[in-house]
Amino acid sequence: MKKNLILIIGFMLMGNTMSAQFNESPVLNLENEDKPLLNWGYFLGFNQYDFKFKYHDNVDNTDILVDKTFGFNVGLISELRINNHLDLRFEPGLHYNQRNMGFPGLNNERDAMREVKSTYINFPLLLKVSAKRLGNWKPFIIGGASTSLNLGSNEQSLDDNSSGKFRMKKNTYYYEMGFGIDFYLEYFKFSPSIRGVFAINDELVRDKDPNSPWTGNIDAMMTRGLFVNFTFE
């Protein structure tokens, strides 16, 4: 119910804005908004993180289950204008999320479940490619690379899964791709966007036991994420 409510609110905001801006002959708002060399703003949004696993073998019933939840994003934007269609953006932000992992081969509830709470400080450098402005709206695609610092990684912990502690590497590297629309309102520019985030490095810190039922069969564990952001500039 909570997930559905968040989605409904997000789409209502987008729908109301779109209906107000997609007019045939609108009064142009913020005509000089995109002319300065530097631009600033902030974003709010929500996320859903997942894991992609690669295994050492194909033993039945070894696939780890991931129960995804919604988290939130908040951050700042600095933008360097290159030309009328290209902008270089730096969007440092705080992303919070929780993933619940299930290990089907373990019957004990304490051993079969792990809560992975992550607080990421994310540092993306992105290239925004925009179409020509149409009245008070302008579609765009965006992509680039990022790195994040996971404050809840437990990488330095001496305990591992045998003591109930799931560990991940503190630093992760990603590539990001997405799309959105700039809406030029009366007093500010509002930009809803959807972005996919894909880790390129193995994030798992393995248990001391090489035959661990939690990490022994995992060749690589990499984050996949979906961001829905609402930007105000």
SSE blueprint:
Layout: H1 2-21, E1 38-55, E2 65-68, E3 70-81, E4 86-90, E5 93-102, H2 109-112, E6 113-130, E7 137-150, E8 171-184, E9 189-199, E10 218-232
Antiparallel strand pairs: 1-3, 1-10, 2-5, 3-4, 3-5, 4-6, 5-6, 6-7, 7-8, 8-9, 9-10
Please summarize the sheet with the most strands.
10 strands, antiparallel
The number of helical segments is 2
Count of β-strands: 10
* Radius of gyration from the alpha-carbon trace, in angstroms: 21 Å
Unreliable parts: none
CATH topology: Porin
Overall CATH class: Mainly Beta
Please indicate the count of domains. Answer: 1
Characteristics:
Beta-barrel_OMP_2; signal; 233 residues; 10 strands; Porin; single chain; mainly beta
Task: Explain this structure.
The protein is 10% helix and 52% strand. With 233 residues, it is mainly β. It has a single domain (2-23, 38-232), classed as Porin (Beta Barrel), CATH 2.40.160.20. Strands 1, 2, 3, 4, 5, 6, 7, 8, 9 and 10 form a ten-stranded antiparallel β-sheet that branches. Strand 3 (70-81) and strand 4 form a beta hairpin. The model has no long low-confidence stretch (mean pLDDT 89).
